[in-house]
């Protein structure tokens, strides 16, 4: 009997459950889709390195999923609490009719079970579809063909999802039983007459809070924009200042908003604006803390989306510049050349088409010498023109290239060589961001202090690319000098032995059809067989860098999308439920409006207007926070190369509009339905 009663309740109140159902379905969908990450390898033609990268990314996603599960558990309990509040009077009537709390709890458990089963099935189906889309996205990120594509269903991910949400539903049932046991019958019957109240009536206090909010937020913005990568060392202070500024902003907003609108009589008395604005003012007063939390979560969601997508764009845009050769070998053995060291190993070099040695020097700052560092360049231009390459790298040394070796590099790339006088130097860029930095230096300086002497800066038309296979920031900007300058003024080493300030690389171009990974493996095998003492050997192959770079982008992109969805979903649910929980309380106000002449169309418009304002307030401030945060993160990401903001911004905006808009429409629909109940 109780099961049938619960089933009838769910059918009758399905629209009441819409937000709850959407929340459960979205949660299950995300949890399944991102936990089925590793199953994509079944249809993707991956190399061993790419498979390892996918395994690492899958481990990160799995660990992250347990954190997400906790967040979703709180979110689902929060949404469920709304349903309990909505039905307090109904439960009170059941008690008057003689039904015990135990039996009411049993009905609630049945209802939770039914909604859980339906949302679980729907969410798994949606997650299955989303996971196929993620497979296509992964193929694009790894630049892989989809010749073997087929629909893959992950049974392991399904079991993890069912187990996780079964635990959450059990917690929800226990929570319902506990909450119901706390209330007396009279409390349930009078539930709709109680309102949360938190009001600041003092105009002076609201002004003080507003000024404090502006000081904290603007100060936080300025510090974050100037700090660059150093902001991470002061992250706790940044978070505390930003959170307090956000809280004070919303605490003062209710006092300012109404008074500001009231100053415009034409606007204030137009249609139902007076009523709507007072409703919004009351909502903000009652939900100051939750509005602040929602704003911060929206910031995290937008930031996660944008940063994850931005890293993907940046790494992919610069990957070709970081792999100018098939293989770059770094070999040290008794000051031998690469050829002599390979001869000692007996390595097979038959696949090599051409090669040349590229020496890179690093002039570290010492106790008595300034060194040749990124800070050296930063001193040459106005502070307003400083970009993230120089700010973030700081005391890191510039890469110093001997002219002869750099000309060998140009010849290997089929480009015209350059010439320099002993007192001249040229700046070279490994990516677009570094090119912008050295362009600024050329615009503001004619000379540079390097290797303990003044060198004239001359500009040459050089390719924007790395000189070796590498992604390290130490080769982002290079300084080309005449060979004699290095011989006469050896770079200052960070270590006691100056040889550590020099890196000897051998850039290798293989014959057509030769596999760079197989070539490197043959050398490693020869090294393993001979085990020469004191030999150091390391190789960066184009395939390996491509795989590791794309593996990095896949991980960051998926983590960003995953967290972005979770934070955005949580924010939308909290906003929607706060509005719906007050709809029943506001029914009597709309009945009065109807009696004094406000027609249904005008009331409907006022509901839309009220909910739109409430939804837009935390989003508007979150967008301002995000613009500052994303700009600061771009300076950090710029270490990897020049960032492209357009596509990540468009994709982030589209996702936010889609989810936010969906919950906005669902909230408006639910709100009006509650108002129209007889």
Characterise this structure:
This protein is of the alpha+beta class and 678 residues long. It folds into three domains: 1-194, no CATH class; 202-318 and 543-578 and 613-669, no CATH class; 352-510, no CATH class. The chain is built from 22 helices and nine strands. It has helices at residues 2-12, 18-35, 48-86, 88-96, 101-142, 155-182, 185-189, 203-227, 235-262, 265-268, 273-286, 288-318, 338-345, 374-378, 388-393, 403-412, 432-444, 483-488, 516-530, 542-595, 600-637, 646-675; strands spanning 327-332, 352-362, 399-402, 424-429, 447-450, 453-457, 477-481, 502-510, 536-541. The protein has a nine-stranded mixed beta sheet with strand order 5-6-4-7-3-2-8-1-9. The model is unreliable at 193-198 and 494-500 (pLDDT under 50).
Helix content: 55-70%
The 3D shape can be described as elongated
State the strand order across the main sheet: 5-6-4-7-3-2-8-1-9
Radius of gyration: 32 Å
Tags for this model:
ABC_permease_BceB-typ, 678 residues, transport, alpha+beta, nine-stranded mixed β-sheet, transmembrane, elongated, 22 helices
List the helices and strands and how they pair.
Elements: H1 2-12, H2 18-35, H3 48-86, H4 88-96, H5 101-142, H6 155-182, H7 185-189, H8 203-227, H9 235-262, H10 265-268, H11 273-286, H12 288-318, E1 327-332, H13 338-345, E2 352-362, H14 374-378, H15 388-393, E3 399-402, H16 403-412, E4 424-429, H17 432-444, E5 447-450, E6 453-457, E7 477-481, H18 483-488, E8 502-510, H19 516-530, E9 536-541, H20 542-595, H21 600-637, H22 646-675
Parallel strand pairs: 3-7, 4-6
Antiparallel strand pairs: 1-8, 1-9, 2-3, 2-8, 4-7, 5-6
Helix pairs in contact: 1-5, 2-3, 2-5, 2-6, 2-20, 3-6, 3-20, 5-6, 8-9, 8-21, 9-11, 9-12, 11-21, 12-20, 12-21, 12-22, 20-21, 20-22, 21-22
């Amino acid at each position: 009997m109780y099961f049938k009663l619960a089933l009838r309740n769910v059918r009758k109140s399905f629209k009441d459950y819409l937000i709850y159902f959407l929340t459960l379905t979205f949660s299950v969908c995300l949890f399944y889709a991102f936990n089925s990450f590793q199953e994509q390898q079944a249809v993707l033609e991956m190399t061993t390195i790419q498979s390892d990268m996918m395994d690492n990314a899958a481990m990160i996603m799995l660990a992250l999923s347990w954190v997400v599960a906790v967040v979703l558990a709180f979110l689902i309990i929060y949404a469920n609490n709304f349903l309990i509040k909505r039905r307090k009077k109904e439960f009170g009537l059941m008690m008057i009719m003689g039904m015990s709390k135990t039996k009411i709890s049993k009905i609630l458990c049945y209802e939770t079970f039914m909604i859980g089963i339906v949302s679980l099935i729907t969410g798994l189906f949606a997650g299955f579809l989303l996971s196929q889309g993620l497979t296509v996205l992964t193929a694009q990120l790894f630049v892989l063909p989809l010749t073997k594509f087929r629909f893959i269903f992950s049974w392991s991910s399904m079991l993890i999802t069912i187990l996780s949400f079964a635990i959450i539903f059990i917690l929800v049932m226990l929570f319902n039983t506990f909450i119901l046991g706390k209330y007396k019958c009279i409390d349930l019957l009078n539930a709709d007459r109680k309102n949360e109240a938190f009001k600041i009536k003092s105009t002076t206090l609201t002004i003080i809070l507003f000024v404090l909010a502006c000081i904290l937020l603007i100060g936080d913005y300025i510090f974050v924009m100037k700090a660059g990568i150093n902001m991470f060392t002061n992250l706790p202070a940044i978070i505390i200042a930003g959170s307090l500024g956000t809280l004070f902003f919303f605490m003062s907003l209710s006092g300012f908003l109404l008074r500001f609108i009231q100053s415009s009589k034409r606007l204030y008395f137009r249609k139902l604006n007076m009523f709507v604005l007072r409703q919004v003012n009351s909502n903000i007063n009652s939900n100051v803390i939750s509005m602040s939390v929602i704003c911060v979560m929206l910031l995290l969601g937008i930031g996660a989306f944008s940063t994850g997508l931005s890293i993907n764009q940046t790494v992919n845009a610069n990957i070709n510049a970081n792999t100018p050769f098939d293989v770059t070998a770094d070999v040290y053995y008794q000051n031998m050349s690469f050829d002599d060291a390979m001869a000692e190993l007996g390595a097979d070099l038959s696949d090599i088409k051409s090669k040349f040695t590229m020496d890179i020097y690093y002039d570290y700052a010492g106790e008595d010498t300034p060194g040749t560092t990124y800070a050296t360049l930063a001193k040459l231009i106005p502070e307003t023109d400083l970009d993230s390459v120089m700010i973030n790298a700081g005391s890191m040394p510039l890469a110093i290239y001997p002219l002869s070796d750099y000309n060998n590099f140009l010849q290997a790339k089929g480009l015209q060589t350059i010439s320099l006088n002993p007192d001249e130097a040229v700046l070279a860029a490994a990516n677009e961001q570094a090119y912008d930095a050295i362009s600024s230096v050329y615009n503001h300086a004619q000379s540079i202090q390097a290797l303990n002497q003044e060198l004239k800066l001359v500009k040459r038309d050089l390719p924007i690319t790395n000189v070796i296979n590498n992604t390290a920031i130490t080769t982002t900007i290079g300084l080309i000098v005449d060979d004699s300058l290095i011989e006469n003024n050896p770079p200052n080493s960070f270590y006691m032995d100056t040889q550590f300030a020099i890196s000897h690389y051998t850039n290798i171009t293989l014959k057509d059809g030769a596999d760079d990974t197989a070539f490197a493996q043959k050398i490693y095998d020869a090294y393993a067989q001979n085990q020469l003492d004191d030999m150091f050997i390391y190789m960066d192959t184009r395939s390996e860098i491509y795989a590791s770079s794309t593996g990095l982008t896949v991980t960051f992109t998926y983590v960003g999308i995953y967290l972005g969805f979770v934070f955005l979903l949580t924010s939308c649910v909290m906003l929607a439920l706060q509005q719906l929980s007050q709809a029943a309380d506001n029914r009597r106000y709309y009945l009065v409006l109807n009696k004094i002449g406000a027609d249904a169309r005008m009331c409907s418009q006022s509901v839309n207007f009220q909910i739109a304002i409430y939804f837009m307030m935390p989003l508007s401030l979150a967008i301002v926070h995000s613009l500052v945060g994303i700009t600061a993160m771009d300076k950090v990401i710029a270490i990897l190369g020049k960032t492209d903001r357009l596509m990540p911004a468009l994709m982030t905006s589209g996702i936010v509009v889609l989810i936010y808009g969906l919950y906005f429409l669902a909230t408006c629909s639910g709100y009006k339905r509650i108002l129209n109940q007889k």
